[in-house]
Design brief:
The structure holds three protein chains of three kinds. Chain A is of the alpha+beta class. Chain A folds into two domains: 11-68, Arc Repressor Mutant, subunit A (Orthogonal Bundle), CATH 1.10.10.1590; 82-165, Glutaredoxin (3-Layer(aba) Sandwich). Chain A contains seven helices and five strands, in the order ααααβααββββα. Chain B has four domains: 3-77, Ubiquitin-like (UB roll); 99-216, Alpha-Beta Plaits (2-Layer Sandwich), CATH 3.30.70; 285-363 and 517-674 and 700-723, Rossmann fold (3-Layer(aba) Sandwich); 366-510, Dimethylsulfoxide Reductase, domain 2, CATH 3.40.228. Helices cover 30% and strands 17% of the residues of chain B. Chain B has 28 helices and 33 strands. In chain B, the strands form nine sheets. Chain B has a seven-stranded mixed beta sheet with strand order 15-14-29-28-27-18-19, with helices on both faces. Chain C is α/β, with parallel strands linked by helices. Helices cover 42% and strands 12% of the residues of chain C. Chain C is built from 17 helices and ten strands. In chain C, α2 runs parallel beside α6. The longest helix of chain C is centred in the C-terminal third of the chain and has 21 residues, at 352-372. The two termini of chain C are 29 Å apart. The model of chain C has no long low-confidence stretch (mean pLDDT 95). Classes of the chains: A alpha+beta, B alpha/beta, C alpha/beta. The complex binds flavin mononucleotide, iron/sulfur cluster and FE2/S2 (inorganic) cluster. Flavin mononucleotide binds at residues 59-63, 65, 87, 89-92, 176, 178-180, 213-215, 218, 394-396, 399 of chain C.
């Protein structure tokens, strides 16, 4: 197993990838996790990310793109530091999912797939996120927030703003 | 597998168990519509057009994925099925731009045909169609996204078929789109196979788009002029101001040795025919030393007179340096001209110019190859045999670059027939990806490899895999050995002796030039007659060629040297460029009467005293032999005013020299059959074609003039033992493979001779002169070069 | 943290450890965990499969295929390694039950995977979770690490000669990947496009080896079945529908949440007793009984027992057990549009009827709902859906067509009310954008 010497990833992620490609009966099985973890670190799937992952797995960059473009969580442009994903699917819709989405649009001044000018937030309308019984629900990055009300939207935004101000 | 019996639409059919229903039906003449199914490519079941009803199965089944089994009952046409297909078409047409009137595929579109059949005429939708700009992916390939129906044929053809994997599919659902590997461009072999398999007009050809409607063209099947593999190519021709012009090349006639395949050269490499640099008038050097256009009459008369003078006079030549008389003219032939022309050229040289100095640019050692096979039968492999061989040993060569069809055939053989490919090479080649075993040799190790194969344990002892390689080969019951042109002389002989010592080994030897094999077979050699017969002897040919010189002449290089030092007073060069090939200095042959027959003003032509503009392979009739010994018919497709086939030029020269042309070309027929003037084999072929094919095949067609190459083909068949052709097959457009073992030559003496081979290694867009003059290929080459530079 | 609910009618088997900290292995062990795996190891594959068959457990992923029978299809001998694949892609709108299992009881999934592996002779199991469930993946990974530490997973599980490895895998956003063969493709690092069947996964599956694929709830149920005995489990449910099932109540319901009820439990009672009735005392307009792909039932159609056969007989499906309640203030056209938008967005795009069909349905419904519909549109929508049914490469096409047909047939009047430029009587959001 050749460990990438010129990796664009952090040493930790690089080491994790070295392990991932050996985990499965077939190297390629590591592809989707790698794409997601790389996106978590880099922010999106840049050409450089795609090229390195292709090399690590031993497939062509085109092949990586074929797969990556299939999955809706993967993106090819930077999102905000906090990516707000509002579910508007049936269970959420019935309990005000669109109102929640509207509130975010209004508060952030951006629409579906928009990013705020300061790069702090991005907004997405998403399909069912598996929180139907606690609707309406959203995810900010990977954190779930459920049983939302329009008022709680403001609190959530505040929470992330202060998290950002607090460094990390 | 065992045959099974099943019922389709009430008909009882039989097919091997496991055959796909769609194939079984098509074989039985039951048409099953399909977009995604493509024979030889992996199954998709994506388009759902092939749905049929199977008894006792609740849902409609896809015929493309249903293997037949005993006792099954199917219905392939019913209102229910027609409705399913119609609904699918309606869905497709919802967003399909109905720009058929300006679409390249209009008239040749599978979607159009099916809509016609299933009548999805009325539109269900009022939404606007989504328009998207067409994309240029390369000079060869354009993509019109809204037209794409996502059948994935192109993706599979590029990946599975070509092993290039330059096309992908991105996004999902209705946003799914075919995507090239370069983001907005294609970085690939530019073979255009994707265009060929596209059932609609989504992928279009850079050389053809918006040029013509399919029904405006005549489609002529002939042989590609670019490499020694000899793909069948269909040329679409159309009337032009100065004759017939080629607007397209493809392989819509898939009956050839290449089946589905055609490479960039075959598909896009035809515009040399229309090149502005093309010679269309004979040129004669005037007193001022300048080449000046003249008439054919004058040019022929001039050449004939000069040749006549040189041959008939003896003693010191006019320029006072060499000797005139027989043997004072050299002749250089071509790997691009037909068998008939090559045969005629050597006959003309030997019997009219009375010279033994004749040769061509040899690109493989066919003399040794042939010599080793004498006395054995069934030891040479034609391309179809190679494509179906269970095991192949590929030594040297790089088929992917130099023999694209061979590479395709090997890949397909491995993929579809699970053939085992063994590769030994001094360079890394792409076909190793298909090989069960490959061996990387150091330069000069081919000989050691042959010794190793022959059982010498010490040979290649330093190479760890060599023993395993040899053992694996020893386990193969039958084997086709294909070797690159680097195998020649003693090395080739040693390899073939090893192979011949085993019961079921066949051979193929790679070369370059569409008729390189033909030039050799037709005896364009200073020491060998057609069929590799020795000059001295008393075979039928010797008797007919009575009086010709029997001592070996000068070879290609020696002729140029002799001419350079004034020892050859005349030189006839047909379709070759020795000045460029050998780096001869301008003016070196100023004392030699130099006549050049060519399509372009090559470096050699520019030095000539007379230049005769010739027809290219796409503008004449005859046969060519590919490097695997498959003889195929060349049919005249295009027509260019002002040029003449080399065949006709030679006949006219002979006539003008006072020779009774009947002795050169045995034309005419006394049996009184009504004639078809040969036009049946051209672009203007009419209803008489079928009759002409049969008559010609049975040698009943009168050869009305000495310009009919088929008259010479009769003689070739009569005098060259290995050319016992299956004529009906040949004339019907299929290949007829030669049988090299049939000759009668002395192997030993063959092995003594100098092979004189200069192996050419053409690239994917390269075939020498013709590719240089083809702007489409030059564009492709530049496109690929830019990508390579960018990647470095 | 999603809230837990409870109702006296519940029979807590799969949910018995919820809220008790069983994600920690010590707690799980205290609550009787891993005993079934040990027993399975001792008793052997035939016993396991017999118990599973006796339990009448039918797959909780949607199709309701008997689990014991599925396992018995795997060939005993195989040249290629066999695999167990747990489907935790949970993406059917209205469904969030596996979410809670991974959160509260991840070891039950691990234990079930081991048992399935023992039953078919696999050495490796994969637990595939949708990528959005990142925090659950971390919980499951931690649980797996604990199981390795204890020697329950690894070369010699429970000190035996038997090997079993478990790998947790993440998806990256794709409903279609829940389809079993697409799931295998995804796990092999490819686009989530289904495979041609046959061959079926039990014969040629993951990496070409025989593979058993089960829903996470199915797998989490397995240790309980072995613990209580197949027959005892079967006795809880209704005829040919063994045991309990997790029903997710959502939409216009007073007490939404995930409830574990015996198979065959009345739908009316689920809505009006367990769920506390329609929210705000409103009237029931319709109910989607088993996730968004199942055709709606009208208020007069809810007197049925919730099991695969009875819901099937009522013209719908039990599906994933996601019961979505719709009140009388809801626009059905909008609901249909939101449903179809989902399938349009999630269609893998492989076959024409699904790719183009979902798109045209969405386009037509969008325009229709915006007030630009024509009479012909209603028939067209029905025609489209009818022509997708049974004609697509995988059941996603049906999943889109079936509910659409239900809406158009059962609420044609409401569609007609949208005609002639009349504004939607309920609409808040005229259009769904999602690209
Ligand atoms: C489009 C589609 C999506 C599916 N999504 C899921 C899913 O998210 N989770 C799941 O367990 N099964 C899903 N299934 C069902 C699976 O294909 C499969 O039948 C199931 O995982 C088998 O497990 P079971 O027998 O335990 O139900 C889906 C099926 C289809 C056709
Ligand atoms: S471009 Fe042509 S060949 Fe390729 S998927 Fe589209 S329709 Fe098929
Ligand atoms: S040919 Fe069978 S589905 Fe396309």
């Amino acid at each position: 197993m050749s460990v990438e010497t010129m990796s664009i990833f952090s040493p930790e992620l690089s080491a994790r990838f070295d392990e991932l490609v050996t985990r499965y009966p077939m190297k390629r099985s590591a592809l989707i996790p790698m794409l997601l973890y790389a996106q978590d670190e880099v922010g999106y799937l840049s050409d450089a990310v795609i090229d390195e992952i292709a090399r690590r797995i031993g497939i062509t960059p085109l092949d990586v793109r074929n797969v990556a473009t299939y999955y809706s969580m993967l993106r090819f442009k930077p999102a905000g530091r906090f990516n707000v994903q509002v579910c508007t699917n049936i269970s959420c819709m019935l309990r005000g999912g669109y109102k929640i989405f509207d509130r975010f649009q209004e508060r952030l001044g951006i629409g579906h797939k928009g990013v705020t000018a300061d790069g702090l937030f991005s907004l997405e309308e998403v399909e069912c996120i598996g929180a139907c019984c606690w609707a309406p629900a959203i995810q900010v990055n990977y954190d779930f927030h459920d049983e939302l009300t329009e008022e709680r939207v403001d609190a959530i935004l505040e929470q992330y703003r202060s998290q950002n101000a607090g460094g990390r | 597998m065992a045959d099974v019996t099943f019922t389709v639409d009430g008909k009882t059919l039989t097919a091997p168990a496991g055959t796909l229903l769609i194939d079984a039906c098509r074989k039985a003449g039951i048409e099953i519509p399909a977009f995604c199914y493509y024979p030889g490519l992996s199954l998709q079941a994506a388009c759902r057009m092939c749905v049929v009803r199977q008894e006792k199965v609740p849902k409609l089944q896809t015929a493309c994925t249903t293997p037949v089994a005993e006792g099954q009952v199917f219905i392939t046409e019913s209102p229910e099925i027609a409705q399913a297909r119609k609904a699918t078409l309606q869905l497709l047409l919802g967003n399909h731009p109905l720009d058929c009137p300006v679409c390249d595929a209009g008239g040749e579109c599978e979607l159009q045909d099916m809509t016609f059949k299933y009548g999805a005429g009325e539109s269900l939708y009022v939404e606007a169609k989504q328009h998207r700009e067409e994309q240029k992916w390369s000079p060869a390939v354009y993509f019109d996204r809204p037209r794409c129906i996502l059948c994935y044929r192109c993706v599979r053809m590029c990946g599975e078929g070509m092993d290039v994997w330059a096309l992908g599919i991105q996004n999902r659902g209705v946003t799914a789109v075919i995507a090239p590997n370069g983001g907005d461009h294609l970085d690939c072999e530019q073979c255009g196979m994707c265009i060929d398999v596209c059932p609609v007009g989504a992928l279009t050809s850079g050389t053809y788009r918006y040029k013509s409607r399919p029904w405006e063209m005549k489609h002529v099947s002939t042989v590609c002029t670019h490499c020694a593999d000899g793909c069948k190519v269909t040329l679409g021709v159309r009337r032009a101001n100065d004759g017939m012009e080629i607007v397209r090349a493809d392989n819509r006639d898939k009956s050839g040795i290449n089946g589905d395949f055609l490479c960039a050269k075959g598909r896009f490499g035809f515009d040399f025919v229309e090149s502005a640099e093309r010679l269309t008038q004979p040129l004669v050097r005037n007193v001022a030393g300048v080449l000046e256009p003249t008439t054919w009459e004058k040019a022929i008369r001039h050449v004939a007179k000069r040749f006549q003078e040189i041959v008939s006079r003896s003693g010191t030549s006019k320029n006072g340096r060499g000797q005139d008389g027989p043997g004072s003219i050299g002749v250089i032939g071509s790997t691009r001209t037909t068998n008939e022309e090559n045969y005629l050229l050597q006959k003309f040289a030997r019997t009219v110019l009375k010279t033994q100095h004749i040769d061509h640019e040899r690109t493989a050692d066919y003399a040794t190859f042939h010599g080793l096979l004498v006395g054995s039968t069934g030891r040479a492999a034609g391309l179809k045999e190679i494509a179906a061989a269970p095991a192949i040993l590929l030594l040297g060569g790089n088929p992917t670059e130099e023999h694209p069809l061979l590479a395709w055939s090997l890949r397909s053989d491995v993929r579809l027939n699970h053939a085992r490919l063994y590769v030994a090479n001094t360079q890394a080649i792409r076909l190793e990806r298909q090989a069960v075993r490959s061996l990387h040799l150091a330069d000069g190790d081919y000989e050691a490899l042959v010794r190793s194969l022959s059982g010498d344990e010490t040979a290649l002892a330093g190479l760890p895999d060599a023993a395993a390689f040899r053992d694996a080969l020893a386990g193969e019951e039958s084997l086709v050995v294909i070797c690159g042109a680097e195998f020649r002389g003693a090395a080739l002989a040693a390899l073939m002796r090893w192979g011949l010592s085993r019961p079921q080994v066949k051979f193929a030897l790679l070369s370059d030039g569409v008729n390189a094999r033909g030039a050799a077979d037709m005896g364009v050699y200073p020491d060998l007659m057609p069929g590799y017969q020795m000059l001295a002897g008393d075979g039928p040919m010797h008797q007919e060629y009575a009086g010709m010189p029997v001592t070996s002449g000068k070879d290609y290089v020696a002729m140029m040297e002799a001419a350079g030092s004034g020892k050859l007073n005349g030189l006839l060069v047909v379709g070759a460029d020795p000045f460029a090939a050998l780096g001869v200095a301008d003016g070196a042959l100023k004392d030699t009467f130099l006549v050049v027959q060519d399509c372009f003003l090559t470096r050699t032509a520019a030095q000539a005293d007379v230049v005769l503009p010739t027809a290219s392979l796409y503008e004449k009739t005859g046969t060519v032999t590919n490097c695997y010994g498959d003889v195929q018919m060349v049919r005249k497709a295009a027509d260019k005013a002002g040029v003449k086939p080399d065949f006709e030029i030679l006949v006219r020269l002979a006539g003008a020299m006072g020779v009774d042309v009947r002795t050169l070309v045995p034309f005419g027929d006394s049996q009184g059959v009504r004639a078809d003037m040969g036009q049946t084999r051209g672009a203007q072929a009419g209803e008489a074609d079928r009759h002409a094919v049969w008559l010609a095949a049975h040698a009943l067609e009168p050869k009305l003039s000495p310009f009919d190459p088929l008259a010479i083909l009769d003689e070739v068949e009569r005098l060259v033992p290995e050319y016992k052709l299956d004529r009906l097959n040949l004339f019907a457009g299929n290949e007829s493979t030669t049988e090299p073992g049939a000759g009668f030559v002395s192997v030993e003496s063959l092995l003594q001779r100098k092979d004189g081979v200069v192996a050419a290694h053409p690239g994917l867009f390269d075939s020498g002169l013709l590719s240089e003059k083809t702007s489409a290929l030059q564009q492709l080459r530049r496109h690929q070069e830019k990508l390579t530079v960018a990647a470095d | 943290m999603p809230s837990l609910v409870s109702h006296p009618d519940e029979v807590k088997i799969v949910t018995s450890r919820f809220g008790k900290g069983a994600a920690k292995i010590d707690t799980y062990l205290e609550l009787g965990g891993y005993a079934s795996a040990r027993k399975a190891l001792a008793e052997g594959p035939d016993w396991i499969i017999n118990e599973m068959k006796a339990s009448g457990l039918r797959g909780r992923g949607g199709a309701g295929f008997p689990t014991g029978m599925k396992w018995s299809f795997v060939p005993k001998q195989s040249a290629k390694p066999k695999y167990v694949l747990v489907n935790g892609d949970e993406s059917e709108p209205g469904t969030c039950k596996d979410h809670l299992i991974f959160l509260h009881d991840p070891h039950s999934v691990i234990e079930g995977t081991i048992i399935a592996g023992l039953a078919i002779g696999a050495k490796t199991g994969f637990i595939y979770l949708r990528g959005e469930y990142r925090y659950l993946i971390q919980i499951v990974e931690r649980a797996v690490a604990e199981a390795y530490e204890r020697g329950f997973l690894g070369k010699n599980i429970f000190g035996s000669e038997t090997e079993f490895q478990v790998i947790v895998q993440t998806g990256a956003g794709a409903y279609e990947v829940g389809e079993e063969s697409a799931l295998m493709e995804s796990l092999e690092g490819k686009r989530g496009v289904p495979r041609i069947k046959p061959p079926f996964p039990a014969v040629v599956g993951l990496y070409g080896g025989p593979t058993v694929i089960n829903n996470a709830e199915t797998i989490a149920t397995v240790p309980h079945v072995l613990a209580m005995g197949g027959a005892a489990y079967a006795a809880i449910g209704s005829e040919r529908n063994g045991g309990t099932r997790l029903f997710g109540l959502s939409g216009h319901i007073e007490r939404p949440g995930v409830y574990e009820l015996p198979m065959g439990y009345s739908l009316r009672k689920i809505i009006y007793e367990v769920g506390g009735g329609v929210r705000g005392g409103r009237k029931l307009k319709a109910v989607v009984p088993g996730g968004s792909s199942t055709p709606v039932l009208l208020p007069e159609e809810i007197d049925i027992g919730m099991d695969f056969d009875q819901v099937g007989k009522a013209g719908s499906m039990l599906g994933s057990g996601g019961v979505v309640v719709i009140d009388d203030q809801t626009c059905i056209v909008e609901f249909a549009l939101r449903t179809i938008s989902f399938y349009q967005h999630e269609s893998c795009g492989w076959c024409i009827p699904c790719r183009e069909g979902t798109d045209w349905l969405k386009k037509s419904l969008t325009r229709f709902h915006a007030g630009f519909g024509t009479e012909k549109d209603i028939d067209n929508i029905q025609y489209l859906a009818e022509n997708m049914m049974g004609r697509t490469f995988c059941p996603l096409g049906d999943a889109a067509a079936m509910p659409t047909l239900g809406f158009v047939k059962k609420f044609r009047k409401e569609f007609e009310d949208h005609l002639h430029g009349k504004p939607c009587p309920f609409a808040h959001h005229p259009e769904v954008v999602l690209v």
